[in-house]
Amino acid sequence: MLTHSRRPELGVVFGGGGAVGIAWHLGVIEALERAGLAVRAAPVLGTSAGSWACAAARFGLGFEEFAGIGDVSVPDRRPGLLHDLAASLLGDVHADAVAVSVVALPTMRRHLLDGGTHRLADLIAASSAVPGLFSPHRIDGTQYVDGGVRSMASAAHAVDSDVLVASLPIAGPLFGPIGRAFEVASRRALSQWRASHGGSTIVLRPGRRFAEAVGSRPRALMDVELARRVYPIAYDTAARRLDRRLSEIAVREADSPDAVAALS
Questions:
Q1: What pTM did the predictor assign?
Q2: Contacts of 120 by beta carbon, 8 Å cutoff, 6+ apart
Q3: Fewer beta carbons within 10 angstroms: which end of the chain, N or C?
Q4: Are 110 and 103 spatial neighbours (Cβ–Cβ below 8 Å)?
């Protein structure tokens, strides 16, 4: 189905979106596994909620493990809160081919930090530290906040692969002006990635059922019980869209093996 090369077959970018975003990503991960794609070994790049999804993809964590953390009331600026929550799931593990997007203070520059060098609990705490809701997290002497401050997905910085899947929990017109802006920025970044790497891209974002279940309240994104309700919707939506896009890639490659399929 996919081209054969020395590059990884699959790369995945996981965007931001709170607890509900994590539920969306877990549905995407399940859909990728169902499609026979090696998501547990794939290079992954996460931002905010997407950093939690990177850990889920690498270590096979399911929704119940995340739900077991419980509700997090926001704002909660206790230092170390996010790290302790992540460490309760992951301990002190590192992971190769995992990167997360963070923003450094006070420069506000985006950085991609590597899971082979840093503990995943530290990376998740830094990438998820939404300003005003959670405290910044310090790694090697630098304070970091949520990577979504600069970009909700950072797809242009994903590594080389044959197919890059962008899992975007709050992208698209169903989420209003913020969703439209997220979608435009993400598609621009994916276009830059295709120009650099020549691979195919697949965007997986919610449909109407998911968006209507979430509603328009920003704090709903942190609601674990809501996340539980939308998780099966996420899987169903992602699986159907993924099947269709993979079929389109297969057809395009059969017609023109050297063609670049921009299936976003």
A1: 0.91
A2: 54, 55, 86, 90, 93, 94, 95, 98
A3: N
A4: yes
Q: Per residue in 34-72, pLDDT tens? A: 999 999 999 999 999 999 999 999 999 999 898 888 778
The identity of residue 227, as a single letter, is A
What HEC string does the chain produce? CCCCCCCCCEEEEECCCHHHHHHHHHHHHHHHHHCCCCCCCCCEEEECHHHHHHHHHHHCCCHHHHHCCCCCCCCCCCCCHHHHHHHHHHCCCCCCCEEEEEEEECCCCEEEEECCCCCHHHHHHHHCCCCCCCCCEEECCEEEEEHHHCCCCCHHHCCCCCEEEEECCCCCHHHHHHHHHHHHHHHHHHHHHHHHHCCEEEEECCCHHHHHHHCCCHHHHHCHHHHHHHHHHHHHHHHHHHHHHHHHHHHHHHHCCCCCCEEC
Whether residue 38 contacts residue 153, with contact meaning beta carbons closer than 8 Å, is answered with no
* Residue range 160-195, pLDDT digits in tens: 999 999 999 989 888 889 889 999 999 999 999 999
* Dist. CA 72–CA 49, nearest whole Å: 13
Contact status, residue 213 vs residue 174, Cβ threshold 8 Å: no
